[in-house]
Amino acid sequence: MVRGKTQMKRIENETSRQVTFSKRRNGLLKKAFELSVLCDAEVALIIFSTRGRLYEFSSSTSRCSSINKTVERYQRKIKDLGDSHKGVHENTQILKDGDMSMAKTIEHLENSRRKLLGDELDTCSLDELRQLENQLERSLEKIRARKNQLFMERIEKLKEEEKCLLQVNKRLREQYLIERGRYLSDEDLEVVKKKREEEVETELFIGRPEKQMTLKLKAASHDSAHKYLHMQN
User: Fold this and answer.
1) Which domain holds residue 18?
2) Per-residue pLDDT tens over the stretch 1-13
3) CA distances from 144 to 117, 137, 147 (A)
4) Nearest 5 degrees, angle CA 111-CA 115-CA 117?
């Protein structure tokens, strides 16, 4: 015969209710004992019948002291959880307050930005407009200072590049003179050397010294190349 499923509601018949209580109480005590032995768990079970009779179980041999110990442990745990929940609530409130403050700060910055761009100035007083003007002037001064700094850095960099190019040009000229000397006789070299020593600068030149030196280098290079081609012919 198949047993019907028990409905989860109060048993109206007192005798049947008492019999069911006795059976299920014993089953519950047995399950509590098995749980404590198999899983090495600390178990305390307290049952009061409808007539007020006490039934209890403790996983310790000293039942009364063990139940009290377990109850005290439970109360401490509940208190710790309550304190933890309180701390979480306080932290949550702090975060909410921080979010509200951050939102107000962002809104204030947005308003300031729009006013600096020239928008929404109708609501500004004369003092506020003066403050905006002073702030813009300070910003322009910083921008100009930074711009001048970048210009100076660029000029210094160009000077360094010019210096490097002059050094390269000097090395190339020296290399050219060395190569040229290979095709001249000792007598010709002596004549060139003597001529350089006897040369006296008499011409008048108007312009920057760097330009004058460049023209001289070009003239010397042209003269040397002409002599070299003449020797080859």
Assistant:
1) 14-59
2) 456 677 788 888 8
3) 19, 10, 5
4) 120
